[in-house]
Design a protein that fits this description.
The structure is a single chain. The protein is an alpha/beta fold. The chain is about 50% helix and about 15% strand. The protein has a domain at about 25-150 and about 195-245: Undecaprenyl pyrophosphate synthetase (3-Layer(aba) Sandwich), CATH 3.40.1180.10. The protein has helices at about 5-15, 35-40, 45-65, 85-105, 120-135, 150-170, 175-180, 180-185, 235-245; strands at about 25-30, 70-80, 110-115, 140-150, 200, 220-225. The protein has a six-stranded parallel β-sheet with strand order 3-4-2-1-5-6, with helices on both faces. The chain starts with a helix and ends in a 7-residue tail after the last helix.
Length: about 250
């Protein structure tokens, strides 16, 4: 073991000791940003950056398991990303499919697709649905795989689903307008039945949410990390947990 590895290990243990176990977030959302810029800095292709980012996911989920996080949401592809050049998009879909299949084969987590599956290629949408079915009985943590996800699209889909549900029941629009509230919409979100994210992490130095879990993150704590996603380390994750644990959550007050 080199001197740098020894120093890293000491710092890692110090960080862990600074995090109160009762202050671990139940749900962590992650915007996995910076894959393409990482690849550019390496002189590699965008696909190489996305594959390097995909390789980081299993490590990250393992860190979440070790910390006691119950739910993780990984934003792999936004609805805006669907407008990328076709060749790049096809390569990205292939990487996402390989990543999801790899998570299934791990047999460690329950997978739940989050996004507008109707916008995705048939093979990708089918794999995401099958991943949910095949991992449903696993007792591990819940992992939301956000592919073709957009916060505005999610709210529109939730309202549409709510209206369709009540149309079947014979409810008129006037009647629906009289009693619709926040909880009714929340019950039709992609993440219905799950706790809202306590902590949202974004890598690459960008300090915006870009619509990620727009409804659910109303009271979330945010942590922005300078590292590109492929370079995100365990100590970066521990720093995010420490920052969360040190904050006093006010829930809008």
């Amino acid at each position: 073991m080199g001197l740098s590895d020894l120093a890293y290990g000491i710092y890692e243990r110090r960080l862990k000791a600074q995090i109160a176990t009762e202050r671990i977030p139940r749900h962590v959302g992650v915007i996995l940003d910076g894959n393409r810029r990482w690849a550019l800095a390496q002189g590699s292709s965008s696909s190489a950056g996305h594959r390097a980012g995909a390789a980081k996911i299993v490590d990250f989920l393992g860190w979440c398991d070790d910390a006691g996080v119950e739910v993780v949401t990984l934003w792999l592809l936004s609805t805006d990303n669907l407008n990328r050049p076709q060749a790049e998009l096809q390569a990205l879909m292939s990487i996402i499919e390989d990543t999801v299949q790899g998570l299934v084969e791990q047999s460690r987590w329950r997978l739940h697709p989050v996004g507008a599956l109707d916008l995705l290629p048939d093979s990708t949408a089918r794999l995401l649905k099958e991943s949910q079915e095949s991992t449903a009985g696993i007792k591990g943590s819940l992992v939301n795989v956000a592919v073709g996800y957009g916060g505005r699209r999610e709210v529109v889909d939730a309202v549409r689903s709510l209206m369709q549900e009540h149309a079947i029941q014979g409810t008129t629009l006037d009647e629906l307008a009289q009693f619709i509230d926040v909880e009714h919409i929340a019950e039709h979100l992609y993440t219905k039945g799950q706790p809202d994210p306590d902590l949202v992490i974004r890598t690459s130095g960008e300090q915006r949410l870009s619509g990620f879990l727009m409804w659910q993150s109303a009271h979330s704590e945010f942590y922005f990390c300078e590292a590109y996603w492929p370079d995100f380390r365990h100590v970066d994750f521990l720093r995010a947990l420490r920052a969360y644990a040190d904050r006093h959550r006010r829930y809008g007050t």
